[in-house]
Amino acid sequence: MAITIKDVAQKAGVSVATVSRVVNQKDIHKVGLKTQQRIEKILKELGYYPNTMARGLKTRKTYNIGVVFFWYEKPSLSDYYLTRVLDGIISFISEKKYNILMNTFSRNIQNEGVYANFVNSGLVDGVLAIAPPVESRFFQDLKQGSLPYVLINYQVNDPNVCFVDCLNTQGIIDVVDHLLSLGHKRIGFIAGDIQYSKNSLDRFNAFKYILKKRGMAFHDDNVYFGNWTEQAGTKAVEAFWKTKHPPTAIIASNDIMALGAIKQLRKQGLRVPQDVAVCGFDDISSDMTLTTVHQPAFDMGHEAAKMLWSQIEKRPLDYTHRFFPTKLVVRESCGYYLKNSQDQKTKS
Amino acid sequence: MAITIKDVAQKAGVSVATVSRVVNQKDIHKVGLKTQQRIEKILKELGYYPNTMARGLKTRKTYNIGVVFFWYEKPSLSDYYLTRVLDGIISFISEKKYNILMNTFSRNIQNEGVYANFVNSGLVDGVLAIAPPVESRFFQDLKQGSLPYVLINYQVNDPNVCFVDCLNTQGIIDVVDHLLSLGHKRIGFIAGDIQYSKNSLDRFNAFKYILKKRGMAFHDDNVYFGNWTEQAGTKAVEAFWKTKHPPTAIIASNDIMALGAIKQLRKQGLRVPQDVAVCGFDDISSDMTLTTVHQPAFDMGHEAAKMLWSQIEKRPLDYTHRFFPTKLVVRESCGYYLKNSQDQKTKS
DNA sequence: GCAACTTATTATATAGTGAAATTAAACCTC
DNA sequence: GAGGTTTAATTTCACTATATAATAAGTTGC
Prior knowledge:
Two copies of one chain form a homodimer. With 348 residues, the first copy, chain A, is an alpha/beta fold. Helix content of chain A is 39%, strand content 17%. Chain A has a six-stranded parallel β-sheet, covered by helices on one side. Chain A has a six-stranded mixed β-sheet with strand order 7-6-8-9-10-12, with helices on both faces. Chain A has twelve helices and twelve strands. Chain A folds into three domains: 5-43, no CATH class; 64-166 and 297-324, Response regulator (Rossmann fold); 168-295 and 329-347, Response regulator (Rossmann fold, 3-Layer(aba) Sandwich), CATH 3.40.50. The first copy, chain A, has helices spanning 5-12, 16-24, 33-46, 52-59, 82-93, 114-120, 137-144, 168-181, 198-213, 230-240, 255-267, 297-312, and strands at 64-71, 99-106, 126-130, 149-152, 162-166, 187-191, 223-225, 249-252, 277-282, 291-294, 321-324, 327-329. In chain A, helix 5 (82-93) links the parallel strand 1 (64-71) and strand 2. At the A-B interface, helix 4, helix 5, strand 2 and helix 6 of A face helix 4, helix 5, strand 2 and helix 6 of B. Strand 2 (99-106) of chain A pairs antiparallel with strand 2 (99-106) of chain B. The structure holds a DNA duplex (30 and 30 nucleotides).
């Protein structure tokens, strides 16, 4: 059995209240100096560590923050900008002496009650939700609960709800404009899943918007709806090249799908970027040749954590929303100027 | 204020014990069917969720497992095989309905008391430690505590201590033999920090061992002791090329340092692999051209989690140690045959 | 046939669980 | 004895476990 505050009190010949004061250095002026020192000595001798459960029960404070992310086929951090978001969160939160309680839910299966339990069980002081599914039960439970929370990569119209996001629309505009400036007339788009992902929807809408604004036609058969995986990228290329007019450039809603697309293009004997230009989104930096839209994931995680912390500790909040600019990173995968779609030349 | 079991009991006109039985489905035969149904209805109506703190206090069970990793300059998941280890852990643990409580400590600073607090606070049912520092205070606290724990990437002689590791020695032997077979006579070695990392030490010792066994000379000035970072890789190359006899091949103790080395080599006008062959360790797959030793990080994480879970749930444990084989992955960064160190040709 | 006694079922009351807050009390000092 | 300092006792937090009580139905003895 572990040492309790009672044991310490008994050995010191004082009450538990006195020990508690010394341990927490709270109302310490109510404890005499010599008793204080005696208790401190015994604390070390016995190796006492307060029980978090008991303390949490009384104080309603756990120093845990819940971090939730969602998966498609299986939970995974690897294939994702997710890791950098987490790094940002960790860097802020660990400095503030909080723990991170990680939890992950399926994006498709709506486990009734599981979310609510997580939110209402008193295990965490607040929640950071990374790219939660649209219209999800999870989101409802979060709203109904009394816990502070911050959404990452999700925008809400409610001015009271805290979130951080990147400027998806501008990111897509940049990459489309870049491709147009290279002379591309027909751009394929690989979307993430529109149904569950807010980011995906935003990026897709931005794509349609900017095409129209630039006076370009939008072709249904040059769009593929994937699920963020590499396989989705390969499938998209297969689909595009079954149509009469395959694109000369492809924008994928994330880097993973872009890499999948490149793989499939090469398999079909097409060169990147000579035959087809490919761009991604996220900048996961696992491939140093991919043109992509950089998302400042670390900063977003850091800022979200800060927002949550401010709420938990009841500090003044400068803003409830925060948008981060993206940055177009031009690399080799679309670095060529296109005279026309038949005859392609390299730019010196 | 959140709904408590008392509220439910009051509304249902029964005692709290009865409600507890229904909530946990424990000793449920002691509750009449109609009372059961009535309570279940009220449970939903009021939206009751048990308080984890109160429950944990009584039952001594939290359904949290602590995952600890260590950093050098700042906490980070990105630059590492760490992410895959975590994926393995998550994949097992989330299926078992446990939460992951992540905590990270500095490798250099020994924060007295902090580890012990983490181990003894009753917040977690067990601990997974990823590559803990050698001879660390953390390790002592873990041993002294009564929590079950499993070490990842750390071997201990004690048959009662659970750990998983990869076969570092064989990995290094494979890569050395590969380089020797390509004709290299002078191999540089970039070690991780020997002082704090068990893996690093094992790999370095393996390197010395196999050189001797193959009848090759070991040169002190062809060894550099880094700290796993990219910068360490660049520094190593700088150091090697200041000596009289720079190596024709370099083995780095992890991929990050190998990539740093390649960067610096190119900066100095040397070609990889034509002029210098470079190999890494881990297979972080952020660069598809690097020859490296693959470490089955996912499986290791998965297995470690399973071991821990078995201990926590008092299931029979098949073994306390588990070693995973590595696999040499030959890619471009060392793909050439060397006739002699002056005159190099490519193999067709 | 009725009280008394079983036996099984169902519900309640009570005692922890460790720590913190609140209230009460003891102890000085002047 | 007032006033301040220091310590103690008690209650609270939400929940679970254990022991005990109540209830009901059936069985037996006389």
